[in-house]
Request: fold
Amino acid sequence: MRIPRIHVAGPIVAGEPVALDDSASNHVVRVLRLAPGAPLRLFDGRGGQWRATLASCGKRGASALAEAHEALECESPLAVVLAQGIARGERMDYALQKAVELGVQAIRPVFTARSNVQLDADRLDKRLAHWRAVIVAACEQCGRNRLPVLAAPLRIEALLAETAAGDGGLRLVLDPLAQHGLRALAPPPGPVTLLVGPEGGLAEAELAAATAAGWQGVRLGPRVLRTETAGVAALAALAALWGDLG
Reply:
């Protein structure tokens, strides 16, 4: 059986027990039905992972004992920030999960004119906690030992204002009517920010504003892709062209 990988808040210290949170405890005890002594891999987001064993498990939770650090990394050499138009439920979860698997460095949820999700402060906090859990689970599954940054959501106007100075590296916005695709671009010397619209895409005024702010429109082919597909396809293409995919 594959050794379970678990993210912990840390910091992890060799020879000291580490308490697993409720979600991890439930997974190893009730889902996997592991017993004390079972091997685990722990990571705290500070780099590398730890060989560990399940030390205790019970109704009040579980703990692990860290044994030795392994300096393993699988971060992409291409620094990509995904600015994802906020979509509904499972579509947003899918977009974030696959973005993590494809190596993004950071994720910025963006409210746009066609975002169908309305969130007050309390609901936004709960949604952010949920998105963080999606990111953690994706890192546990795919082998990443560093969590992508989940930046605070903002409106598209604020995003474009942030990047209007022109010092944020290559900025790309998905536009099905753009004149060229990713292969027409030169390899970027620095980071890439990719803006993906929500369900229904970005409004024409938003695309025009992005272009005016220095973003380059790119298309992914002759077909219009759903928001959760478009970001994944673009990230995979970026990783294949300039990253470590393929």
Remarks:
- The mean pLDDT is 93.
- The helical segments are 22-31, 89-101, 121-142, 156-163, 204-212, 227-242.
- The two ends are 27 Å apart (CA to CA).
- The first strand starts at residue 5 and ends at 7.
